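Hi R.,

Here's the chain you asked about this morning:
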Amino acid sequence: MPTVLRISGFRFFFYSLEGAEPPHIHVERGDDVAKFWLDPIDLCESHGFRSHELNRVRLLVIQHRLSFLEAWHVHFGREA
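And the predicted structure, written out as tokens:
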């Protein structure tokens, strides 16, 4: 479960066995979790986050999208 970024209490990561899925990033803070597709950026699922928190997380995903994609491709052995 490689952690890609920790910022503002959020942890952004992906699971090592999800390489067959399109690039995405998981985010958690406490018991709250969400999953965002990266291309295009879209919320896949969320549990516990309130809508205003998801808006904040979405902005962080947008801001760090390129580094998330790079980490995804490096981890799963694919070129970006």
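The chain has a mean pLDDT of 94.

Let me know if you need anything else.
M.
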